[in-house]
Automatic annotation (TrEMBL):
Organism of provenance: Ketogulonicigenium vulgare (strain WSH-001)
Superkingdom assignment: Bacteria
Annotated localization: Cell membrane; Membrane
GO cellular component terms attached to this protein's record: plasma membrane
Family: Belongs to the 4-toluene sulfonate uptake permease (TSUP) (TC 2.A.102) family.
Ranges annotated as spanning the membrane: 20-44, 56-78, 90-109, 121-143, 216-235, 241-262, 274-295
Annotated InterPro entries: TM_pro_TauE-like (IPR002781), TSUP/Inactive_protease-like (IPR051598)
Descriptive protein name: Probable membrane transporter protein
Length: 309
């Protein structure tokens, strides 16, 4: 790289990287975590892959950084009492189950030698779909607000008629625990396969499916993300041995600082503006990954030789 660098060697990833660049990635993702209530894995994992980190190491190590940046952002929201701990616990239970399933799928695809293709295609399809939906909805909400016609969001739908109801006082809801458990499980599966916190799915699901107030969604999402991604990291470390501690520490240092900055920025922006900004970021990452598949078709499939066999 041109200019002055601080190159270090990562033993697990078996590559040399610029420490300042990795720290910068963690800082940027930390800001996004505090702003949007996402762990930032949807961005950090592709960026690590673009930086030359093997995809298996990027997925496993990204969850390590997500934990740190989410903890930093959560403390800021706890001080403002914007966290529904009961809802977060229900989401977490589903997330732990989903994470175990996701890591199992990841391990199976790694043995098949197709883990790189699976990760890339998963990001392109999922981020493209979610980003487009969020952009359309956020734009509509912003236009309604500017025109002076802002209808009250529907708080009750078929989801609220399901059995096993529980009262969530902070969110002002009395709904079934089944939808939060399913949302948490789905996000946990994505965490195990893609190395994401899943906030880019959980945040809109909490708002539009569960009917939670926007002000408590971000903090509650971070609460769930911390436990699920920590569990995912442990599973990857003990089954795949692909967690690079040195890489994770550099990302954590940047992420903790960035999360505090992002929380302050997020408090100054309207909910509709936050959703539009997040949607644009998601679409940008999806587009970059799709472009890489088109321009480098020779990398669509890769074979990986597992050690110890």
């Amino acid at each position: 790289m041109p200019g002055r660098t601080m190159t270090i060697y990562l033993p697990i990833a078996e590559v040399s990287v610029d420490a300042l660049w990795i720290f910068g990635l963690g800082w940027i993702v930390g800001i996004l975590s505090g702003m949007f209530g996402v762990g930032g894995g949807f961005l950090i994992t592709p960026l690590l892959i673009f930086s030359g980190i093997p995809s298996a190491v990027a997925v496993a190590t990204a969850t390590n950084q997500i934990v740190a940046s989410s903890v930093s952002g959560l403390f800021a929201h706890l001080r403002r009492k914007n966290v529904d701990l009961r809802m977060g616990t229900v989401l977490m239970i589903g997330g732990l189950v989903g994470a175990a399933i996701g890591v199992g799928i990841f391990n199976w695809m790694r043995r098949m030698g197709q883990v790189d293709l699976m990760i890339t295609l998963s990001y392109v399809i999922l981020l493209g779909t979610i980003g487009a939906m969020m952009l359309v909805e956020g734009t509509r909400a912003l236009l309604r607000q500017r025109s002076g016609v802002v209808p009250a969001r529907k708080r009750h739908n078929w989801v609220h008629n399901l059995p096993l109801k529980m009262k969530f006082r902070v969110s002002g809801l009395y709904i079934s625990v089944i939808p939060p458990l399913l949302v948490g499980t789905g996000v946990g599966v994505l965490s195990g396969i893609m190395g994401v916190g899943g906030g880019f799915i959980m945040v809109p699901a909490m708002i539009y499916l569960l009917g939670m107030p926007t002000k408590v969604v971000v903090g509650t999402s971070l609460f769930q993300i911390i436990f699920v991604t920590a569990f995912t990291t442990m599973l990857h470390a003990t089954t795949n041995y692909t967690v690079d501690i040195l890489l994770g520490l550099m990302l954590i240092l940047g992420g903790v600082v960035g999360a505090q900055i992002g929380t302050r920025i997020g408090m100054r922006l309207r909910a509709e503006q936050l959703r539009i900004l997040m949607a644009l970021l998601v679409l940008l990452v999806a587009g970059q990954l799709a472009l890489g598949l088109i321009l480098r078709p020779d990398e669509l499939y890769s074979l990986e030789v597992l050690r110890g066999r």
